[in-house]
Amino acid sequence: MKTLKYLLIIMPAVLLMHACKDYLDIQPSSQSIAISNTSADSLLYKTPAEVEAALAGAYADFRNEYYSLDYFVNGDAQSDDAYAGADNPANFQIDEYSIDATNSNVSRDWAYLYATIGKANAVYNNVEAVPELSEGRKKEIKGEAAFIRAFMYFQLVQLWGDVPLQLTEVTTISVELLPELFPIMFPPRAPKAEVYDQIIADLQLAAENVKTVQPDKGYATKGAANAMLAKVYATVQPVNWDKVNQYCDAVIAGGYSLMPNYDDLWNNENENCAESVFEINYEGTSASGNWGASMFRGLDWKKFNTPSNDLVRAFDNEQDVIRKEASIIYLDVSGKWTDPYWPQTNFPFVNKYRIFTNNSPQNYILIRLADIMLLKAEALNASGDVSGAATLVNQVRSRVNLPATQAATTETMKLAIEKERRLELAFEGHRWFDLKRTNRAITVINATTGPDGNIFGYTLSENRLVWPIPQTELDNNTKLVQNPGY
Q1: Are both 200 and 331 inside the same structural domain?
Q2: What pTM value is reported for the model?
C-alpha cells in the first residue's frame, strides 16, 4: 500500500514535468536520477564540450563543504588527534561519539556525497553516446567518472557501513515502468561488501583507462587510482595484504618521491609536488577559493579541530620537533575565548593550512606518497617481513631527523607504524579511519589522555563506529533501516 501511495503521488507530477521538458533531473538527497525522452535528439550530452563540462562539475565537488571542512572533522576531530573546537553542537556530537540521526553534519555529508555520485553516474552512463568524441577520450572520461564515484562511495561506506548503491539512471518513463523506477528512486541499503566490490571495480577501470599525468594532481591518474586501491584493500575486512602490497608498489613505481623537507608540503611553494598523488587545487579566487582553510586557523573566532593534548604528547614523547612545528602553531588568544583544554596564552591551531582567508589558494593534499609507503610497511609487516617494513618506516622518519625505529617484532612494528602514520599524517583526515580499519579505534580512543595526562573519558562503543542514517533519509525512504544503537 505504501508503494502504491508513492506511485500515485509521483505519477501525475512526473508526467506533467515530462511533458514540459525533454530532459529533467530529479535529485532525491540519496541519489541522482536522469529522466529523458526517447527521441533521437535527447542525448544527455550532445557535444564533447558538454560532457567535459559535466565531468568538470563532478570534479568541482571536491571543493564543496564536505572536502573543505567536514572531511577533516570526520577524520581528525572524530579521532584522538583533535577536539571539535568552535561552537557547533553537531561537531561536538562527532567529537564525543554522541551523534544522533538528526545531526546536521551527518545529513549534509550524506547529501553531498550522493549528489556527487549522481553527477559521476550521469557522465559514466552517457559518455559513450557522445558524438564527435574520440573512443580514447571516452574511455578516459569514463575512468575519471568511475574514480570520482569510487572516492565518494569509499567515504560513504566508511562512515555508514551498508549504504544504497546507486549506479543507474532512468532513461525513459511511462506508467508501465513506474514499478521499476520506484526501487531506483528509493533504494535499500546494499551490504558493504557489495559496495566495496563496486568501489574496487570502479578503481580498476580507472587505473586501466585514465592518464598517467594530468594538468595537475586534482585529476584522476593511474597513480591516484592505484593509491585508492591500496587504501581500499587495506580497509576491506579481512584485509588482502597481497593486494595492498601490489597497489602500493604500483604507486611507488609511478614516479613519486618524498619531498626533501617535510615543511615543503605545507609552505604553499610546492603545490602539486612530487610527493602528492591526489590534491584539491584552489586558485584563490571567489569562484575557486579554499574558505575551509579559515575554519582551522585564525583569531577572529574559535576554530575547528583544536589539536588534542594526546597528540601533542605523542609528538613530544617521540621528540618529533619537525613534524610537530609543521603541524601545530601556538598563538595567544587572551581576551578572545576560553577553552577547557588549553591556556589562552598558548593555544594550538592546525598549522598545515596556512593561508587562512575566505578565498585562500591553499591546496589540500588528500593522498601522498608517505601515506602509501606506510601502508606498504603495514602489508610487509603483516606478511612477516618486519625488516622490510622497518626500511620504509625509517625512510619516512629520516626525513624529519628521527632515529631508526626500534620495533623488531610483528606486534611492536604494527604499533610503530600506527604511531608513525599518526605523526606523519596529522590533520590530513586519516586518523579515525586508520583506527577503524585496524580494529584499534575502541582501545585507542578510550585510552586517550587529557590535559593532565589522565584518561580523558571517551566511551566509544561498537555501535558508534558507524554513523546513523540521517533521519530525513529514513523519513523519505521506507526501504532504509537504521544502524544498531541509534
Answers
A1: no
A2: 0.92
